[in-house]
Amino acid sequence: MKLENSHDTDDMCKTIEVASVVVVDHLSPSKALVAAGDELDRDGEELFTPPLNFAMVDNGIFRSGFPDTANFAFLQTLGLRSIIYLCPETYPEANNEFLKSNGIKLFQFGIEGYKEPFVNIPEDTIREALKVVLDVRNHPLLIHCKRGKHRTGCVVGCLRKLQKWCLSSIFDEYQRFAAAKARVSDQRFMELFDVSSMKHLPISFSCSKR
Prior knowledge:
With 210 residues, this protein is of the alpha/beta class. The chain contains 7 helices and 8 strands. Helix 4 (123-134) crosses helix 5 (150-162), helix 5 packs antiparallel against helix 6 (167-178) and helix 5 (150-162) runs parallel beside helix 7. The longest helix has 15 residues, at 29-43.
């Protein structure tokens, strides 16, 4: 785990409400640019564009794909204290500067993005990431990987087990984000994930048993 401490929708997207999760479905880049130009011409205000696959997980907890500079203005509206980054690659300089200027901590848990059948999800790493998620001192918090599907989906799915969600609801939420890219190995990992060693940790979120 790598921990860095800092010193310290709009017309471009459409939102789809599915059960308790709101998924941001981005338009094609060309349509997005046209929409952005139209919007800026109309009122001259700054657009707030969420990252790919952005959604609220629970009070103070959000998930998404990798945010880029176009998403920074939107992320500022969340008042983030922490970001959990689930990829092994070095965080981009522009993103690091954004964290520093906004007093946001970066928790990096480098999980390789393997494809089936070579997927190897490190259970200990997921546990360490969950400890950060469960610590309300880190909220508001954003969890992200590259696309916000598999690695992020596994962390959120294991969180749901701690929240006593039934497996069918956990898999349903995972599949909304992964869609055609859903992996049997991810769902098997969530099914077998043992939460017994983490039950002593405080869980004070709003989402109840599903």
